[in-house]
Specification:
single chain; Alpha-Beta Plaits; 6 helices; elongated
């Protein structure tokens, strides 16, 4: 029997932060780089468990994404302080933030309860590939009746449920950032995910997409392994 889903008592605040490392970092002596990586990793360790962090490498996948951090907590102030410390600690002093996507979790207005596929934000194990992007709807979408929107979302969700092995996370950012939503997917099979996107783009709701770029694809790795790949 499937376990009963229980939403967190308070919304999660979630950030996806991408870092680009100055090429000067790789020209430093190896011992200095090793110390710098460990100092940077120590900042992340110090904020656990209040802020949970998963590391991803975007090297060879997305220009400007040497490191992608997926962070989950309940306090935006704590996450801001953590980011400030990262940028002044060890390797972080050679980093600049190239992408910053954030939002809150909340129950969907189109479903009664989330499926296992839609509970990825509450899990602590991660799949190999992460795809994340900002998303906004057109004005016409919001001016339609709720029944019309629900019908299109039902079609959209039916397609998504055919790919039950692909996890998804939806964050709400309307009014607090340029995008209205942040969408993230986890998968073990990139070609299969690409087919999911192709199928979703053939649904009626696609007509009302205003923007869904940039798309960031990265590979999950243990933190220190992701840092070692940078050099």
């Amino acid at each position: 029997m499937q376990a009963q889903y229980e939403a967190p008592a308070v919304p999660w605040f979630v950030q996806f932060t991408a870092f680009k490392v100055d090429p000067a970092w790789r020209r430093m002596a190896q011992a200095g780089r090793a110390d710098g990586r460990e100092i940077f990793a120590g900042v992340l360790d110090n904020y656990a468990p209040d802020i949970t962090t998963w590391a991803y490498s975007g090297i060879g996948m997305k220009i400007g994404v040497d490191l992608l951090l997926w962070r989950r907590g309940i306090d935006p102030k704590g996450m801001q302080e953590m980011t400030a410390r990262l940028l002044t600690s060890g390797m972080g002093s050679y980093c600049e933030i190239t992408y910053q996507l954030f939002g809150y979790t909340r129950p969907s207005t189109y479903t009664r309860r989330p499926t296992t596929q839609e509970q990825a934000i509450d899990l602590d194990d991660r799949q190999t590939y992460l795809i994340v992007y900002p998303f906004s709807k057109t004005t016409d979408w919001y001016l339609m009746s709720r029944d019309a929107r629900q019908g299109m979302m039902n079609e959209h969700m039916r397609v998504g449920h055919e790919y039950a092995d692909i996890r998804q996370v939806l964050l709400y950012a309307t009014g607090i950032d340029d995008q209205e939503f942040v969408v993230a997917y986890e998968t073990e099979d990139l070609p299969r995910f690409s087919q999911l996107v192709t199928d979703l783009r053939a649904t009626e709701a696609r007509r009302y997409t205003l923007r869904d770029t940039p798309i960031i694809t990265a590979i999950h790795r243990p933190l220190r392994e992701a840092l070692a790949l940078i050099g």
